[in-house]
Amino acid sequence: MKRLVIFLLFFYTSTQAQKILPDTSFSVYTTYLKEHKKRPYISIAQPLVKGDFKIKSNMVYAKYPTGDLSLDVIYPKHNRKPLPAVLFVFGGGWRSGHRSQNIPLAQKIAQGGYVSITADYRLSTHAQFPAAVYDLKNTIRWIKANASKFNIDTNKIAITGFSAGGQLAALIGTTNNDPQFEKEKINKHSSNVQAVIDVDGVLAFDHPESAEVSTDPNRKSVAAIWLGADLKQAPELWHNASALYHAGKQTVPMLFINSSLPRFHAGRDDLIAKIKPFGIYSEVHTLPDTPHPFWLFNPWFEQVHTLMINFLDKQFKPLN
User: What long-range pairs does 188-193 form, CB within 8 A, spacing at least 24?
Assistant: First the structure.
């Protein structure tokens, strides 16, 4: 009986632990194994062991019953004037992934004279839309509240995201001052950004190019799980989560870096058409013969870095 009790206790605590473990369905290594079969020449882009930067890791910026949200700041060693900042948003279908995925690019951008921030946000395993939007806007507020510690110019903040993170970055860049997303504030600072880099993130969930609607009646898409309803049940919800729906005169300059798979930039051209009459700058680069998670791997990593830094310099360092 004692052994049975011990076994049941172990089983129960293990089961409880499983409930709070993060979803690991997406990781850099498993994605590499999958893509390497088709493209044996690829390799994982590795973090720099050392460089002209410092790192402050695992700083908690918000606390929720589902867990603390943390971020890392990577900043140049010898900056003497306030620098622009870039917030990195990881991807993973709004339910998986980790902020560490962005460390290699964040380090490279920091060496280019920017303060890089990689942040957590609540995934669909813990909270549905718009919780992640609140979290990332709170990250921006944290950046501004801590600007003096890292010598950040609070008028020059960009957000960049990858896949699901790109969708979130674009949504944030099209909703500056939108009161419906200005909730759960951690401080009184503005959550406005001045530029967006969207790397293969959809701009519209309900779009002819989009593949976010599941074709299997017995299986919900990752978008439906995150949004909390299918398209037919709540079309306005799906539209409201789409950057295309919000794009207008308040939208900030945007860079789109895309794979060769059209479904991952659904709504991009429509969004550009909406902001063009307002004279808002946009730039598009589609990398030929690329898989969806190309930014994580060589030989595309350096190209992505170059496109990003050139765009950021154009927006924030025009006289250099």
Answer: 189/140, 189/141, 189/144, 189/145, 189/154, 190/140, 190/141, 190/144, 191/137, 191/138, 191/140, 191/141, 192/140, 192/157, 193/87, 193/140, 193/157, 193/158, 193/159, 193/252
Strand partners, 115: 85
Q: Which strand (E) or helix (H) includes residue 272?
A: helix 268-275
- Dihedral of alpha carbons 6, 11, 16, 22, sign: positive
237 token code pair: 């919800």
- Which residue has tokens 């967006």? 196
> What is the dihedral sign for C-alpha 123, 136, 58, 256?
positive
Residue 46: both structure tokens together: 């590795």
Take residue 14 and report the two structure tokens written for it: 């293990």
**pLDDT (tens digit per residue) in 196-219:** 999 999 999 887 676 565 555 666
Q: What spatial distance separates the first Cα and last Cα of the chain, rounded to whole Å?
A: 76
Residue 200 in contact with residue 285, Cβ under 8 Å?
A: no
69-85: per-residue pLDDT in tens? 999 999 999 878 899 99
